[in-house]
Design a protein that fits this description.
Layout: H1 3-20, H2 24-35, H3 40-47, H4 53-92, H5 111-125, E1 129-131, E2 136-137, H6 139-142, H7 153-157, E3 162-166, E4 172-175, H8 180-189, E5 194-203, E6 214-224, H9 229-244, E7 251-258, E8 261-272, E9 279-280, E10 285-295, H10 297-302, E11 311-318, H11 319-327, H12 340-346
Parallel strand pairs: 1-5
Antiparallel strand pairs: 2-4, 3-4, 5-6, 6-11, 7-8, 8-9, 8-10, 10-11
Helix pairs in contact: 1-4, 2-4, 5-11
Bound molecules: 2-{3-[(4-chloropyridin-2-yl)amino]phenoxy}-N-methylacetamide.
């Protein structure tokens, strides 16, 4: 075997291994093995020095040719491997812009919140302010100021949740049984004229298909020198027409008793029950929807307002029932079940929330 055939064998072997190298690390190891300081081609280069001039003249160019071809093959293969690696990376990281977008999951407005927004807007346009107060109240604000005598059985009819904690008078605190304490707070801090509504959670030990221990009320209070039950009636008619979006509505005032109003009246609204669903503002039937009356002089006096100078009216109604009537929902308990399927069905888009700029429509 000649030195030349050895060279040919070496070249074939190296080129075959370059072709077979399947990553950049393997190719680099091969480059060091052939062309590095201790490499096989470098060793042959060093041997040239010990050859005769004739041998060197024949062998030198062949060895240089081999070195150039192997170097070139490595460079070309290295570029090919780098490109293949980039291709693979691009493929792996590709974003498929033709896929459908992920739908954002929008929340919905709870029907009770929706109705409260509607009522705030309706009464707001009639000049009522919206007041708020705490769920946990003093016995005075919830009962005494409202003309419930101590130990009076009316306190029992509210099925009150009493707390262990005492208020500053040493009396048991209560979960408010109506929103009236907010009116008491307003009268105590603000002189007439007063024209306000309050809406919020109220609590009574009551639980069946039409009663939940937590429910929502709206109450209104107007105190000035001249307001009468006629004003009460016109405000209620305007509010009910706006809320149920009807052109006309009949109201029927029936004498009643509340400790905090005198005279007191329960109010029925004209409705039609013939179609299975109750329709407000049509037909010859009646549906009781609220309580009302002229504020009792004792309540005014208890709240620091002179009953000889001022008078006014008040009314109260259940918000949950208002929501059920307007939006055709029939089980009160579902309101507070936190069942998202029910909420999806009856909930309201946040984009449809009435704003004060939109008008009553
Ligand atoms: C009902 C009855 C009513 C009031 C609430 C009230 C508040 C004050 C003074 C006088 Cl501070 N009255 N509120 C008056 C009459 C009836 O609600 O059946 N609500 C669901």
């Amino acid at each position: 075997m000649t030195a030349t055939t050895d060279l040919e064998t070496l070249e074939r072997d190296l080129l075959a291994r370059v072709a077979a190298a399947n990553d950049e690390a393997a190719l680099e190891a091969l480059r060091v093995e052939a062309l590095g300081k201790q490499g096989s081609i470098s060793a042959l280069m060093k041997n040239l020095g010990s050859m005769s001039p004739e041998e060197r003249k024949e062998f030198g160019p062949k060895l240089n040719g081999l070195k150039d071809r192997v170097t070139e093959a490595i460079v070309v293969k290295k570029a090919a491997l780098a490109e293949a690696a980039l291709d693979a990376q691009l493929k792996a990281e590709a974003v498929d812009v033709t896929l459908p977008p992920v739908k954002p999951r929008l929340g919905t407005i709870h029907p009770v919140s929706q109705v409260m927004e509607e009522l705030a807007q309706i009464f707001g346009e009639m000049g009522f302010s919206v007041e708020e107060g705490p769920d946990i109240e003093s016995d005075f604000n919830n009962f005494t100021a409202l003309n419930f005598p101590p130990k009076h059985p009316a306190r029992e009819t509210h099925d009150t949740f009493f707390m262990d904690a005492k208020d500053e008078r040493g009396e048991r605190k209560v979960l408010r049984t109506h929103t009236s304490p907010v009116q008491v707070r307003t009268m105590l801090k603000q002189k007439p004229p007063i024209r306000m509504i309050c809406m919020g959670r109220t609590f009574r030990k009551d639980s069946d298909a039409t009663h939940t221990p937590m429910f929502h009320q709206i109450e209104g209070l107007v105190i000035d020198e001249t307001s009468t039950m006629a004003d009460l009636k016109s405000v209620l008619i305007a509010a009910i027409k706006a809320y149920f979006e009807v052109d006309d509505v009949k109201l029927r005032f029936r004498p009643h008793h509340f400790p905090f109003t005198e005279p007191s009246a329960e109010v029925d609204v004209g409705c039609d029950r013939s179609g299975g669903q109750i329709k407000i503002g049509a037909g010859d039937d009646w549906l009781e929807i609220l309580g009302s009356g002229m504020v009792h002089p004792n309540v005014l006096a208890n709240c620091g307002i002179d009953p000889e100078k001022y008078q006014g009216y008040a009314f109260g109604m259940g918000i949950d029932r208002l929501a059920m009537l307007k939006y055709g929902m029939n089980d009160l308990r579902a309101f507070f079940d936190a069942d998202t399927r029910w909420l999806k069905h009856y909930g309201f888009s946040p984009y449809l929330l009435p704003g004060l700029a939109q008008g009553l429509g």
